[in-house]
UniProtKB/TrEMBL annotation:
The keyword Hydrolase applies. PROSITE patterns: HIS_ACID_PHOSPHAT_2. Monomer. It comes from Pleurotus eryngii (Boletus of the steppes). PANTHER family: 3-PHYTASE B (PTHR20963:SF24), MULTIPLE INOSITOL POLYPHOSPHATE PHOSPHATASE-RELATED (PTHR20963). It comes from the Eukaryota. GO terms for molecular function: acid phosphatase activity; inositol hexakisphosphate 3-phosphatase activity. This is Phytase A. The keyword Disulfide bond applies. InterPro entries: Acid_Pase_AS (IPR033379), His_Pase_clade-2 (IPR000560), His_PPase_superfam (IPR029033), Histidine_acid_Pase_euk (IPR016274). It catalyses: 1D-myo-inositol 1,2-bisphosphate + H2O = 1D-myo-inositol 2-phosphate + phosphate; 1D-myo-inositol 1,2,5,6-tetrakisphosphate + H2O = 1D-myo-inositol 1,2,6-trisphosphate + phosphate; 1D-myo-inositol hexakisphosphate + H2O = 1D-myo-inositol 1,2,4,5,6-pentakisphosphate + phosphate; 1D-myo-inositol 1,2,6-trisphosphate + H2O = 1D-myo-inositol 1,2-bisphosphate + phosphate. The lineage of its organism: Eukaryota, Fungi, Dikarya, Basidiomycota, Agaricomycotina. Its main location: secreted. It is found in: Secreted. The active site is at 53 (nucleophile), 319 (proton donor).
Length: 423
């Protein structure tokens, strides 16, 4: 029996190209959503940034669930589809949580691109200021970025990682400071019970006696991107077990997870990005940080650990925190909540996890000086795509003062939401 009603040939074709990798939600390898566009010719960039860590192994919990699902498949009495035959000799050997070589390469490449794109902002005494949240994969992403930046400059400019935040304390680069925040479990479970049963039935028909659950199916789908990353980008045989429609459903699981975990669908999601926004405002305005939420006031109050005179700032974070920052700022605002009972297939939908927070995701805030008077503007790019600033007039550029004014939610400390994090 074929794994897909469309037949083996159709399934293999659907999962063999690079396009399938853009259906892996937050586990997609980094890609440019659009080709980078320089600002208008009358403008010059005077300051730039925020990045997610590169590709990693599964977390400890996810890895355990994946191994359970694989073991069920391998215990099947027979395989009715030849594409599962590799399981007879397969050994699960993925690590947990650490950066994989592909993730290191993603960050190294990002550092090279940053130098080439913004080399005019660099000079002796004006190296990028680099910070990272304390997880090892985030720290290694930061140091690989600095290595790429240095190499691109022929080792003339070699920035260092200057600040590593403990994730046990105040940290604007990690979503660990809102204990009362809810989760996305209700919405992702509803989608799991809506979309996955048909896929699970198909797999159980192909692996007789496996008795997979819908949760197992989700975890096997996630093994495709994780195993591919561990193979340094060589496609995992697990990918061939599924077709493009399966991965579209998997992607929507990620969309729902990010939206309802720290995004607009979570009451206490956006407030988790407030501290970072206030740090961004301080850098743009070159004034001290004003914040009483997630910031480490000792570090942010010291010019050695929070300088205001740099042209390039590189901060390394996690996907959930980047989503909170997008939501705190007003990026990717949705007109309605994402529906956990059916996929929103509109081509115009902007909340797509692979485009927002793939491995190595990048949000770049460019400060611009335009015209003879040098009027200051802000432009924001996410994975190289220039964002419409709907919260600031709707154009692709916003006056610096207008941008700061648009960030009232952050400047007001989350309008009381931060206090709710501890109630």
């Amino acid at each position: 029996m074929a794994l897909s009603g469309r037949g083996q040939e159709a399934s293999t074709a659907a999962t063999s190209g690079s396009g399938i990798r853009r259906l892996w939600a937050q586990y997609s390898p980094w890609f440019a959503v659009e080709e980078y566009r320089s600002p208008p010719s009358a403008c010059r960039i005077t300051q730039v940034r925020l990045q997610r860590h590169g590709a990693r192994f599964p977390t400890t919990g996810a890895g355990g669930r994946i191994q359970t699902a694989v073991a069920k498949l391998q215990a099947a009495s027979a395989f009715a589809d030849p594409r599962l035959s590799f399981l007879r000799n397969y050994t699960y050997n993925l690590g947990t949580e650490d950066l994989v070589p592909l993730g290191a390469a993603e960050s190294f490449s990002a550092g090279k691109v940053a130098f080439k794109r913004y080399a005019h902002l660099v000079k002796p005494g004006q190296l990028p200021f680099v910070r990272a949240s304390g997880s090892e994969r985030v720290v290694l992403s930061a140091t690989n970025w600095t290595a790429g930046f240095s190499l691109a400059s022929h080792n003339v400019y070699s920035p260092k990682l200057s600040v590593i935040f403990s994730e046990e304390g105040n940290d604007t680069l990690d979503d660990s400071m809102c204990p009362s925040a809810g989760s996305s479990d209700a919405q992702t479970t509803q989608w799991l019970n809506t979309f996955y049963p048909a896929v699970t039935t198909r797999l159980n028909s192909a692996a007789q006696g496996a008795n997979l659950t819908n949760t197992d199916t989700f975890n096997l789908l996630s093994l495709c991107p994780f195993d591919t990353a561990a193979r340094n980008g060589g496609q995992s045989p697990f990918c061939g077990m599924f077709d493009a429609e399966d991965f579209r459903g998997f992607e929507y699981s990620g969309d729902l997870d990010k939206f309802y975990n720290t995004g607009y669908g979570q009451e206490l999601g956006p407030v988790q990005g407030v501290g970072y926004i206030n740090e961004l405002i301080a850098r743009l305005k070159r004034t001290p940080v004003v914040d009483h939420t997630q910031t480490n006031r000792t570090l942010d109050g010291d010019p050695a650990t929070f300088p205001l005179d740099r042209a390039i700032y590189a901060d390394f974070s996690h996907d959930n925190q980047m989503i909170a920052i997008y939501a705190a700022m007003g990026l990717f605002k949705q007109q309605r909540l994402l529906d956990p009972s059916q996929m929103d297939a509109r081509a115009s939908r902007t909340w797509v996890a692979s485009r927002l927070v793939p491995f190595g995701a990048r949000m770049v805030v460019e400060k611009l000086a335009c015209g003879d008077g040098g009027k200051e503007f802000v432009r924001i790019l996410v994975n190289d795509a220039v964002q419409p600033l709907d919260f600031c007039g709707g154009g692709e550029m916003c006056g610096l003062d207008a941008f700061v004014a648009s960030q009232a939610f952050a400047r007001n400390g989350g309008d009381g939401d931060f206090e709710k994090c501890f109630q």
